[in-house]
Specification:
Number of domains: 3
CATH class of the largest domain: Alpha Beta
Distance between the termini: 31 Å
Helix content: 40-55%
Number of strands: 19
Largest sheet: 8 strands, mixed
CATH superfamily of the largest domain: 2-enoyl-CoA Hydratase, Chain A, domain 1
Length: about 725
């Protein structure tokens, strides 16, 4: 067996060790399922074996399923549906997708005790294996996490996870765990009784074997006579206090956009009314159904496969040797500069933060120290982590100390003159191989590179705020940016464990450009007389994390005003919408409403109270529409279609060159409806013909901003999809 080893000791305890060759982590694929099935049968039928322990030889227990397996399974399903019909294809999908669940159930019921020796993180199907074991012991490790995160990629646990969790926890806790997909620390998992014991790592295997030798039972609680659900029957007073409100909360949080979330509600509700074997069959039927949903296909592709490929260096120049980044210089000790310094230092890189004087540099470092101290007070960090972080960051006003930095990241004020000044100071002292990056979010990289002596070493590295939580980094290529600079930027982003996308230079690049259209559409809806609350609610109903007005408050209303004025100055008055200009001028110049940062924008932010839409917005609407006369569907289409359209324009113009980056960037960068798989996947899900028809309909009613570009019109004529016409090449191995 290439994936497992089996050792039987003198006491008759079988040690099953999972160790997939050629992989850094164990994952579940067809071969693993087949081998595990054979091992379960071996343990059950060999009279010399008293019980079994399953563990991993790697640093983690299991990362979950290899989701390319599910992609291939769906390819088989689609081909079979065409040749043998939908019924035969559906039957095949059901049987194939439940094989792992059946293996786990045999392990659970074949009469020999199994213990999970959890030596590291166990997620998804790997944790479902642990749940199927009769006892679970984990090795002490602050980094270990356990959980069922499938909901985050449009699926749900399909190997018995929903049914075992729902029987181990009260229904409310089970639903919360399944619907949030959180990864739990070991102490939390033990408190929830998902793990039975935590022991020192050196004692792990001995402890698991001792449990078997001391009479460990080979029967799960739900298979024992007299088992009662901790929350009582579904149809009881306690049950009725859980499921109806849970359904309401689910709809409030998801707006029914996520089929997998709906399925979780259904399988828990139905499963808890059935014996375990029937409950597992219900789970398998729903799992096969969700596999066939376009939402699951899109989310798996974007949030697992594409992200994995980008994280592994799919866009990295293969002919450039690996870049060793030992020291990074950050220009600017402000909020953004120190946030970049934080994530860089946490990755084990020494950081030099430079500002105009020592007092300002020290002030920035002190602010970071305070922020980490607040995290310590909330038990989200330790004093040792703070000390290590502070020791890795040097704050100075001496530019000459940048001389041995491998990478310089400029994060000073968004002003061309200020940036030109620091660029001049830096290039006078840095080495000839150092790469210079700008964190600008608005200024074109090519024009900034003109201030640098060697534009081949100049690149954009655009972070998103808050830097420590936002996983996306947008890398921008200027017209003369070289492959070495690109490779260095990608190597750096990989080191700090962020997901990179690579785009070509353009006003607003990709993410800022597209999210600006979402905010603008909210402004124009407001100008049309649509109630602000309706605009915001429909934004969330469409799948966005917040409405366009709330988002504008977060990024600053005065910034939107500055960008609009700069756009008008550079491109002329036709480049801006006069209705948006009038609204922003009123908000910023006349009312002093800059957004969350000064406590008043489209919302009011009163200390200690939830934000509320500013009542004065109604005064700025010369026309007020009756919300009953406004179509929610049309509003949703406007908000989503505008972002998808602008992404298609970016693709047509060559700002974007890879469909994976368009979709990953849209979800991680500005939260575009994750259930869709991203902006281009949303177009593919609708179909280019229907999407172009929708755009033309919106254009006829709301103006030329909805006009579909030539690329989309050509694709619609051929009924092509983006992932068909621009299918990404298989990623090359990163250096």
């Amino acid at each position: 067996m290439p994936n497992f080893t089996l050792d039987i000791d003198a006491d008759g305890i079988a040690l099953v060790t999972w160790d997939m060759a050629g992989r850094t982590m164990n994952v579940i694929n067809v071969e693993v399922i087949e081998e595990l099935s054979a091992l379960v049968e071996k343990v059950a039928t060999d009279a010399a074996i008293k019980g079994a322990v399953v563990t991993s030889a790697k640093a983690t227990f299991c990362a979950g399923a290899d989701l390319t397996l599910l992609e291939r399974l769906m390819d088989v399903f689609n081909a079979m549906a065409e040749t043998q019909g939908g019924e035969a294809a559906a039957a095949m999908l059901f049987e194939e997708s439940r094989k792992l669940s059946q293996v786990y159930r045999r392990l659970e019921t074949w009469g020999k005790p199994w213990v999970a020796a959890i030596n590291g993180t166990a997620l998804g199907g790997g944790f479902e294996l642990c749940l199927a074991c009769h006892y679970r012991i984990a090795a002490e490790n602050a980094r270990t996490r356990v959980g069922l995160p499938e909901i985050k990629i449009g699926l749900f646990p399909g190997a018995g996870g929903t049914q075992r969790i729902a029987r181990m926890l009260p229904p409310a806790d089970a639903l919360q765990m399944l619907l949030k997909g959180d990864q739990l620390r070991l102490d939390r998992a033990k408190a929830m009784k998902l793990i039975d014991a935590i022991v020192p790592a050196a004692d792990l295997i001995r402890a698991t074997k001792d449990w078997i030798l001391n009479g460990g039972k080979a029967k799960a609680p739900w298979d024992a006579e007299g088992f009662r659900l901790s929350g009582g029957p579904v149809y009881s007073k306690a049950g009725m206090m859980i499921f109806p409100p849970a359904n309401a909360i689910y709809r409030r949080e998801t707006y029914d956009n996520y089929p997998a979330a709906r399925a979780i509600m259904q399988v828990v509700y139905e499963g808890l009314q059935l014996p375990m074997d029937q409950a597992l069959r219900v789970e398998s039927r729903w799992f096969a159904k969700i596999l066939r949903s376009p939402e699951a296909a899109a989310m798996i592709r974007t949030l697992f496969i594409s992200m994995q490929e980008l994280n592994k260096g799919a866009r990295r120049p293969a002919d450039v040797p690996a870049t060793k980044i030992a020291k990074v210089g950050i220009l600017g000790a402000g909020f953004m500069g120190m946030a970049i310094a934080q994530v860089t230092a946490q990755a084990g890189i020494h950081v030099l933060v430079v500002d105009r004087d020592q007092e300002t540099a020290d002030k920035g470092k002190a602010a970071l120290h305070k922020a980490i101290s607040e995290r310590i007070a909330k038990s989200r960090a330790t004093a040792a982590e703070r000390e290590a972080l502070m020791n890795a960051i040097t704050a100075t006003a001496d530019y000459s100390m940048l001389k041995d930095c491998d990478l310089i990241i400029e994060a000073v004020f968004e002003d061309r003159k200020v940036k030109a000044e620091v660029i001049g100071k830096v290039q006078a002292v840095i080495g000839k191989d150092a790469v210079f990056a700008s964190n600008t979010s608005t200024l074109p990289i090519t024009s900034l590179a003109a201030e640098f002596g060697d534009p081949a070493r100049f690149i954009g590295i655009h972070f998103f705020s808050p830097v420590d939580r936002m996983m996306l980094v947008e890398i921008i290529l200027g017209k003369q940016t070289g492959s070495k600079a690109l490779a260095a930027a990608l190597d750096y982003v990989r080191t700090i464990r962020k997901t990179p996308i690579v785009v070509n230079d353009s006003r607003g690049f990709y993410t800022s450009r597209v999210v600006g259209t979402y905010i603008r559409e909210g402004h124009l809806m407001l100008a049309e007389g649509i109630p602000a609350a309706m605009i915001e609610n429909v934004g969330r109903m469409a799948g966005m994390p917040v409405g366009p007005l709330a988002l504008n408050d977060e990024v600053a209303v005065d910034l939107a005003w500055k960008i609009l004025k700069a756009t008008e100055a550079d491109l002329g008055s036709d480049a801006v919408d006069p209705r948006q200009k009038a609204l922003l001028e009123e908000m910023v110049e006349k009312r002093g409403r800059f957004g969350r940062k000064n406590g008043k924008g489209f919302y009011d932010y009163l200390q200690g109270q939830p934000k509320k839409i500013w009542p004065g917005l109604a005064e700025l609407q010369p026309t007020k529409l009756n919300p009953d006369d406004v179509s929610v569907v049309v509003l949703k289409n406007r908000l989503l279609a505008m972002q998808a359209l602008e992404t298609a324009r970016c693709f047509e113009e060559g700002v974007l060159t890879d469909v994976r980056e368009a979709d990953v960037g849209s979800i991680l960068g500005f939260g575009f409806a994750p259930y869709s798989g991203g902006t281009l996947s949303w177009i593919d899900m609708i179909g280019t013909r229907k999407f172009v028809d929708l755009c033309k309909l919106l254009e006829s009613k709301y103006g030329p901003r909805f006009a579909p570009p030539k690329l989309l019109v050509d694709m619609a004529a051929r009924d092509e999809r983006f992932y068909q016409r621009f299918a990404p090449a298989r990623p090359k191995q990163a250096a």
